[in-house]
Amino acid sequence: MTTFTGIALIDRLLVAATPRVNDRGNEVRSIFHDAERYLFDVQLDSSAWGQFDTTSDAAYFGVWLSKSKLSTLSYLEGDLYFVQCPDAEHYDAELVDLCNVHPPAPAFTTISDGVLTRHYVDRREHFLDPERCPRSPLQFDDESDEES
Prior knowledge:
The protein has helices at residues 8-16, 38-43, 88-101, and strands at 20-21, 27-32, 50-51, 61-66, 71-76, 79-84, 108-112, 115-120, 146-147. It has 148 residues and is of the alpha+beta class. The strands form two sheets. The protein has a six-stranded antiparallel sheet, sandwiched between helices.
């Protein structure tokens, strides 16, 4: 069987899905599977897949990336979109689109001496060529926010 995500049930459904090509030239397979995003948080191989933090993250929404597979996976209320990219340039183009659509969310926050600090993942880490990452400024609620 073709391995897309490494989750057997999801991969069987994706194999049967009709592929289409998106605006960035990448193959997209979409299916519906009623679940919560935690299925993917728990069952995706963490050595191959990582979460892409967004302000929309919730039980019904999540995005994961795989540099090694040149793939992205998005889950929204049961709709699952698996994107397979043919090369590094197309993969990074897919990530630019994700960055433009989904504002970054803090990976975690800390409070020290009454000062709230939001810590963000540097999105350049997700890119195969970090120079392709859009450098849009983050808008913060207060001046104590920082990237780490």
